Amino acid sequence: MGTKGRVGVWTSHAGVRARWRMRVVAPVVLVAAVAIPFSATAGSARVKSAAKPVVKVGMITPLTGPLASQPDVKDALLASIAAFNKRGGVGTNHARLQADVCDTRGDANGEVACARQMVDDGVVATLNDLTYNNPAGVVDILEKAGIPRVGVGPTALAEFQSSFSYPISAGIIATYLGVAAGFNQDSHTKICLIRTDAPTGATFKGFLTPSFKAIGVDIICDVSVATGATDYAPYIAEIQRENPDAVLISHTDSVATQLISAMAQLNAKIPMGGSAATFKMATLQKYRSITKGTVFSDSFPYPAQVNVKKFPGLKRYFADMKASGKKDLSAANLKPTAFPAWISTLAFVDVTKNLDSFTPATIIQALQSAKDIDLLGLTPLWTPSTPGFSVFKSSSNHYVYISRFDGKNIVTNKTPIDITQYFK
What we know:
Blueprint: H1 14-35, H2 40-50, E1 54-61, H3 72-86, E2 96-103, H4 108-121, E3 125-127, H5 135-145, E4 149-150, H6 157-160, E5 165-166, H7 172-185, E6 190-196, H8 204-215, E7 218-225, H9 233-242, E8 246-250, H10 253-265, E9 272-274, H11 281-286, H12 288-291, E10 295-298, H13 314-323, H14 339-351, H15 360-369, E11 399-405, E12 410-412, E13 417-418
Parallel strand pairs: 1-2, 1-3, 3-4, 4-5, 6-7, 6-8, 8-9, 9-10
Antiparallel strand pairs: 10-11, 11-12, 11-13
């Protein structure tokens, strides 16, 4: 039975499933036909390939809507799965990964509908989930089904404290602590928080303040920017009246672009910082006179070619994205939002490499027993069962890297910071 409105690579519609399989299988068959003359041997090889077991993994994310992920997130997951399938698949039986992507549209009902889709479609785990309007509802559905979430981007305590959540990133709070540490290194100790006007945003400053103080940074002002704003000059004026050393932008990349454009027009040169997803590279480069020195933080090195020498594991990421042939995943167009889907797939494949049977229960067992997983040196060795910090019980990765925009590229410092020291 199909479900109206689903957006996915696999759905329960037989016709859609058949078309998806044709898109994946047809190029493989074509390559095989070109490489090897048709014979009984070639036919046998195709039969063996088709007989490989399928491991279905899902992703719940807002591909459309007012606070949507970039469309390249879906393409990045498909490219990642294709690359790992080509390298031998997953588990001891070299099973073939299959993706089930559901667009929540950034809607509370859409999020729980996607969670139900994961259960109905029989996924054994989800990768790189992002839910922010009804995360507790999603947790409730997936926990009852026993489905683990690898690489989930937690946005609420329900996700951080769920025993089925296995984030690889230390999370957005850790990201902002890394930015604060970068500000402190640059002697910017009085900062202004620029955030969304969402109801939950009103408590954000109070939540960050104790840890920021432990770093040596004070949040002296809190500016709420409406998502649909058209005039940004009043926000810039408000910030200037407070005279901060720097601003932490916690908003969408489109709002950040408008803020930076207004700052340039008003000649307001205020140092900035935020997550990698908040700033478009084109915006940073266009307004480099005011964006140079912008501080970034994440649990992984910023995925740019300039950082490959210090972090060679990025080579495989770039190669896997390029191999997809997708324009949005080409070196010229690749955005940092694509990276989490790839490293979540890498983590899933590494954690389950010794499994011969894939069920939610066997995957959870593998996650709980795995130790010192090497994610190609792109984060310190990862043990998924490591206890989290503060209220973030599931955050087993406690490290972030600091990066800065040098006027041309975003360059990452090779030494990560353990953010648990800032939670007392």
